Amino acid sequence: MDIAALITWVITALGGFYMLGTWISRGGVRGGTSRLPVPIVFGHFALAAIGLVVWIIYVIADKDALAWTAFGLLVPVALLGFTMLARWIPVRRARTAAPAAEGERSEPAERYFPVPVVAGHGLFAVVTVVLVLLTALGIGGS
Fold this sequence. Notes:
Blueprint: H1 2-25, H2 38-61, H3 64-97, H4 115-137
């Protein structure tokens, strides 16, 4: 189960990297009209990356404390992720209601996140949290 969690975590990270790259390239770091605060975005990214490194070390070393540390890091990662999702949904709905004019730069950077990437990132994130928790609890073997 630890390898399954690693695989889902890496898939989740790939979706996150795509969205982070999109957000940065569309001016999200500069603030502007983005509804995603820079500290939340980078806090989510940093904690998730640290957690992934801890999980990789856990897979190699098989120390229970590392599994619980990784899970502990995932809790604030998930909370920050839900915060960003809640702030992204109105942006997405506004795009559906009134598409932006060609070349308009006053729209939020997160408006360019594809729904399938957001949904996949969230789905794989939930699966990752569950697998990490089950592994830390010793359910399903490792």
